[in-house]
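Sample intake — Cytidine deaminase
Collected from: Natronosporangium hydrolyticum
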Amino acid sequence: MIDEPVTPVTAPPEMSPGDVELLDIAQQLLRQVWVAGRHEVATALRTPDGAVHTGVHLEGSCRRSSICAEAVALGAARVGLPPDAPLTVESVVSVQVKPAGAFRIIAPCGVCRELLSDYSPQARVWLTAVVTTGPGQVPAADQITAVAAIDLLPDKTRRAW
């Protein structure tokens, strides 16, 4: 649990009210379960029926056994569906606490990019992108933006399920 104050993410104007709700849910969940080195990421996602599913990062002692928050949330969403219904996700928001005492929207890792794009290639995935100043590529600011899950993996091999 986070005891000290953590600055929340300010939602960008282009984030829909539903996605702002996901951001708020993810931040509140992480505030409740955060443990350094064990539970450092929380995810909230929405399925087309409007249901919100959450997950937290589970770090394992041998690292390979760790499970990302996005994968936990995807599994929770699948459990909530009828057996013959496809797993479809509309929007995903994952957050982490920065060392400076502020929440940050983060992009999924490579494995979670695969999972999201396998099950919901058009899912809207929110992330924080670094905007650079130009030729020297000096970071100028962070910009919260959304991309389709499939766009997180250029040249992805599409598998027919």
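Post-analysis note: The chain has one domain: 17-152.
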